[in-house]
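Protein entry
_____________
===
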Amino acid sequence: MPRIIAIDGPSGSGKGTVSMLVAKRLEFQYLDTGALYRALALKLVRMGKKADDPEAEISAAMKNTVLRFVNDRIFLDGEDVSDEIRTPEAGHYASVFSAKKSVRDYLLEIQKDAGRSHDIVVEGRDMTTVVFPDAGVKIYLDASVEERARRRYLQLKAKGMSLTMDDAIKDVRERDFRDSNRELAPLKKADDAVCIDTTGMSIEDVVESIALEAKKVYP
């Protein structure tokens, strides 16, 4: 049976970077669910869809969509959108559209399929509570709002994007509110998840902590 390490947490808690490194260290595959949501949201925005459109219209717009990971790049209907989905705007729309049942249902089976076929490290907002509630290892990563905003600020500045720390803090708080208060699969810590506060921790220390938890279950 494939081994699953599921990691949840709010925006900026370090899920993506840490999950990739954990997967590499343990020789698991990494499933970037955030990229799936961002790519699908990008398609919906391109098609002129809005979050308050009827579910049937959203569902129809997603029909025949092809999402693929190739060498850590994500392709939307054959187009490499890996860079385009990493903007603040893409993150905003991914958070907005992820509240739609049709969107979550569409991606649920894609995610579950990966867990049936491979040993995976998977991260997102509802991996431990909805997608993989039976995962052998469940982790909830967190950090202070200020720390998460700082990481976001540095990440986007490194890509040449213009923003202030105030912008980054506002973005983090807005996404926290949407993710935690949506009706469908809100962000929350699973009762049996191990919580790791990454504020002030190095990436290496976080990876080590998760690897140690994994070894308890998957020796």
About this structure: The chain has a mean pLDDT of 92.
